[in-house]
Design brief:
Layout: H1 13-22, H2 26-35, H3 57-76, H4 80-96, H5 105-114, H6 118-138, H7 142-166, H8 170-190, H9 197-212, E1 217-230, E2 233-245, H10 248-265
Helix pairs in contact: 2-3, 2-7, 3-4, 3-6, 3-7, 4-5, 5-6, 6-7, 7-8, 7-10, 8-9, 9-10
């Protein structure tokens, strides 16, 4: 049976888009870390040379997501020399998955090595990733799209938790705690492909992380309604804030579980 195995339910584009938008962007994670004046460290990053194309399409899609997350971190710290290695590996993986036409390697490389226009670099990088994700879904390879998104999320969580080991910060702790909700959404998507043997291992890994999050409590509080303008019309939207309750032993368990699984996945 091929990668788009029969019998799968199709998750709507709207649902996928909502989940993707809710995932803590590696850019957001990196921006928070940068605002904390945390020094750049290559120890947080996957080794692009280990993630070769001589693997299955499932592994390549997951690795592509992870390396894209690392690229966001590198971009935020303007580590242009190191970024080129990641760009090359992302380009190689994208070509192997037949989505390389959506990765503007030449432009991104030029911006990464010669320009201080960080906004343009990030926009093109994120836009390229989104276009690859869209095309995978359009060509009935949504299983690979799901793994790519999962790879982004996992690497972003690893980055956040590793920084949290050495730096106590409430905003970072809150961001890590909020991932419990996103993880449930990711598992909803991945379980859609639970009949595919190659994806079952990823599901088991994420279920293990979910267990580590068991004692995290998230409460929601409604704020005052706000009036906004959208498409030339005035709309009233309900604001909402979340509060994360997570003790230190739970955070430590999440950190250790994330590290063990991510490093095994990245062949470290």
């Amino acid at each position: 049976m091929d990668e788009a195995e029969a019998g799968e339910l199709q998750i709507s584009s709207e649902t996928m888009n909502d989940i993707i938008q809710n995932i803590a962007s590696p850019i957001e994670v990196a921006a928070l870390i940068s605002s904390m004046n945390i020094p750049f460290s290559t120890s947080y990053l996957a080794d692009p040379e280990r993630l070769s194309t001589n693997t299955t399409s499932f592994e390549m899609a997951y690795s592509l997501g992870a390396l894209s997350a690392d690229l966001g971190y590198l971009n935020m710290y303007q580590k242009t020399g190191t970024a080129v290695n990641y760009l090359s590996s992302i380009n190689r993986l994208a070509d192997a998955l037949q989505i390389g036409q959506f990765f503007d390697f030449a432009t991104i490389k030029r911006l990464a090595t010669t320009s201080s226009d960080l906004d343009s670099l990030m926009f093109i990088s994120i836009n390229s990733f989104n276009n690859m994700d869209d095309y995978l879904r359009e060509t009935d390879r949504s299983n690979l799209s799901a793994l790519m998104i999962a790879g982004v999320w996992m690497e972003g969580l690893f980055l956040a938790t590793q920084v949290a080991v050495q730096n106590s910060n409430e905003d970072l702790k809150t961001m890590i705690g909020e991932q419990k909700t996103i993880l449930n959404d990711l598992l909803l998507i991945l379980n859609n492909y639970k009949n595919i043997t190659a994806i079952q291992g990823y599901i088991a890994d994420f279920e293990k992380i979910k267990s580590a999050y068991a004692d995290v409590k998230i409460t929601y509080e409604k704020g005052e309604p706000e009036t906004i303008e959208k498409d030339g019309m005035m709309m009233v939207v309900q604001s909402e804030s979340s509060h994360v309750i997570m003790d230190d032993p739970t955070l430590s368990l999440i950190i250790e579980t994330t590290k063990e699984i991510r490093n095994r996945q990245m062949n470290i």
